[in-house]
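B., you asked whether I could sanity-check this one before it goes into the benchmark set. Here's the sequence:
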Amino acid sequence: MKLRLSVATIILFCSGWAFAEDAPVTYQCEVSAQQSDSSQSGPFSIEISGAAVKLSNVSALDGHFSLIRKNDAYYVFKNKKNQGGNLNRSTGAVELYAVNAASHEMTVSINGACVEQK
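And here's what the prediction gave me:
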């Protein structure tokens, strides 16, 4: 009985450890191309902490997103306002967007280049 309890405790500990949260990461970004009603001229930042993504200094989009996919190549995030983006982790290329839910047309498209802040 003690052996089973010990094995179960080790399995639970290791499974929780395998899915531990990454340290927060921040990217500083510059716009390279855009299509939107409001112009984005200055730099912006993307902060990823757990499952939350915070976008700063982008007036055309809301600042809060949920991380919906993370792998070795990309971070993919979106919110309930039909806005989202993806960040290529190896090249730093970022694409931000907003879609009109009724017409299914893209109303905001911002492409840029990001550098991870260490």
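One thing to flag: The beta strands are 25-35, 44-49, 52-56, 64-70, 74-78, 83-88, 93-99, 106-117. Otherwise nothing jumped out at me.
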